[in-house]
Amino acid sequence: MPRLLKKKTTPIGHVTYKGRTGLTNKEKAEIIADFYADVCDLDADNVALTPTQERISNNISAFRLDKPDKNDDDKDYQRRMQTSPKEIWSIIKKLPSKKAPGVDEIHNAVIKNLPQKAILQLYYIINAISTTNHWPTAFKKVVAIPIPKNGKNLVDPGNFRPISILTGFSKIAGKVVHARLAVLEEEINFLPDFQFGFRAKHDTTLQVARITDGITDNFSKDKNTAMALLDIRKAFDRVWFEGLTFKLLKIGLPSRLVRLLDSYMTGRTLQVRIGTELSTERSVKAGVPQGSVLGPKLFAYYLYDMPTFSKTRLALYADDTATYAHSFSAEVANRQVQLHMYQLVRYFGDWRVELNSEKTENIIFTRKYTENKIITKLRVHDKPITEKSQVKYLGVVLDKKLNYKTNIDKTLTSANATLPQLYAMMNKKSGLDMTNKLTIYKTILRPIVTYAAPVWCGISDTQMT
């Protein structure tokens, strides 16, 4: 892709954390690594475990010490888990050549040019992983590259988004296990219907359409919809290891596979890279590995048993959580949402998941012209949640009348901002043929304009006003 399409990188100035200030790239990498390690340390909160959490922790500790029975699980487990050189080669061919390497500094382009003997050795290693239920230590090392968040104070290390990079070999092994998990997921059928994240034949557009169809259907019945959008603090980074392993066993996954996944999660290390400087290693004590295909799926498994409520509906896409209720009275609908939120707050507390009350939002969808006064504000941890006139869910702006005007305006603004960057390649004198121009349009511009289009494309001009 031409250089003009690449995003400009913001240089990292000095960063400060816990009274320390980093000026050189090495110092900044060490400070940001400390911050990321603290985020992934649930014990740093100094909150004592409840008796139930203590029991779960002890049970999983005993499970880890237990030697697996050779006859554990059904006889076809090993057959299910075994890979082949052909499968490994098919995964390698799809690796993006220009991705940054992990801590081993082995680029995907190198892996793609490995001789057959090396592919065969990798095949033996990955099969040994499933046989021994052990994820190699070398595959657990992660390099994080901090990316500045737009418009934030970049002195605070919390205002950098980490891009996690695993080694290429770890990604290959992860994709092999992921394929087996996907099959078991369908067989056991444990994920709830309201979880749309990282599942076959599910996507963000379908989840938003599911919600908005329900809202518009109730508009026709003269009903309002109250919705709460819950924000989970550092969701992927703070998954409780013992809690997740407990749930994997509860789901009914083969115990040997659970041992393998437990090994995959625990004992991981993190290093931060800024420029050419790399921090020393930090232990990762919680969270699912980001930058991997297994991490998002394991997170969805962690929340598979989220409690439902008869008067509300749930919508999940990974950690993006919304609960909503329909009623002739906006106040009644909001109270129903509040009752469900009491359950959800207890559930999250039980599993050491922290809700961010400051980022949790409330909205009332209505097309009534009479005032729908909300007497009782939603609360999370006794903190009131401000009612909004519009919210964003899975990238779509939902206003209280569902006329999508703001969403369409933002889509056009984004597309118009992208268009000048493409002009050098798309104008008549660029020298590119029409086939390449069409490819650029389909790859870059069209996805911006058509994102979630099935949700909002039927809106008329009068509805937008």
UniProtKB/TrEMBL annotation:
InterPro entries, alphabetized: DNA/RNA_pol_sf (IPR043502), RdDP_mobile_element (IPR052560), RT_dom (IPR000477)
SUPFAM superfamilies with a match to the protein in the record: DNA/RNA polymerases
Pfam families with a match to the protein in the record: RVT_1 (PF00078)
Reverse transcriptase domain ranges (all copies): 128-398
Origin: domain of life: Eukaryota
Single GO biological process annotation from the record: DNA biosynthetic process
Protein's name according to its UniProt entry: Reverse transcriptase domain-containing protein
Taxonomic lineage from the root: Eukaryota, Metazoa, Ecdysozoa, Arthropoda, Hexapoda
